[in-house]
Amino acid sequence: xxxxxxxxxxxxxxxxxxxxxxxxxxxxxxxxxxxxxxxxxxxxxxxxxxxxxxxxxxxxxxxxxxxxxxxxxxxxxxxxxxxxxxxxxxxxxxxxxxxxxxxxxxxxxxxxxxx
Amino acid sequence: xxxxxxxxxxxxxxxxxxxxxxxxxxxxxxxxxxxxxxxxxxxxxxxxxxxxxxxxxxxxxxxxxxxxxxxxxxxxxxxxxxxxxxxxxxxxxxxxxxxxxxxxxxxxxxxxx
Lengths: 115, 113
What we know:
The structure holds two protein chains of two kinds.
Chain A: E1 4-5, E2 10-14, E3 19-25, E4 32-38, E5 45-51, E6 56-59, E7 62-67, E8 72-77, E9 86-93, E10 104-105, E11 109-114
Parallel strand pairs in A: 2-11
Antiparallel strand pairs in A: 1-3, 3-8, 4-5, 4-9, 6-7, 7-8, 9-10, 9-11
Chain B: E1 5-7, E2 10-13, E3 19-24, E4 31-37, E5 43-50, E6 53-56, E7 65-68, E8 75-79, E9 88-95, E10 103-104, E11 108-112
Parallel strand pairs in B: 2-11
Antiparallel strand pairs in B: 1-3, 3-8, 4-5, 4-9, 5-6, 7-8, 9-10, 9-11
């Protein structure tokens, strides 16, 4: 029972263009969403997050959009750079209440930015 | 300021042996979490510990797996009598407080032959 789904295992984008990574969730109790970036042989690194009370959060080249009615979020990277090539994990949790440390992860999307 | 340190990076065990994975949290962090990533899967929560206490082990398999975070030294994830299905990447994370951001280590890749 996958509660967080990333349906695209991989994505290739030209340098300078926009990368859009998608994530869907099924558990309506989730109220906090995070994106992690992972390079080979390293642990996931926190990238950006969004609370369910917002529909957009921006940090430099990275913007996360949340559509609660569709239970969908997306990560936009613009402009994409070769150093952005990594696996991106979407994660969700219930911030309200105990157990917010229990992140539910998607399977990840491998982004390749082509120079 | 060193990050979360895990060792070993790679661990090879034969079926039936024991595996011990170590995790030292970031300086100033007293909350430790273990996650497991099976091949082609996302990370899954296993256990949450504070010093000398297991707070939440709801994600731990019921048998053969145990975790501890002693007063002194690193947190240990112990897997007894390993089977091939235990082959995975095991990530440790730490945080300063219970509801604060998690910082992940580089993981231990366990391979069971």
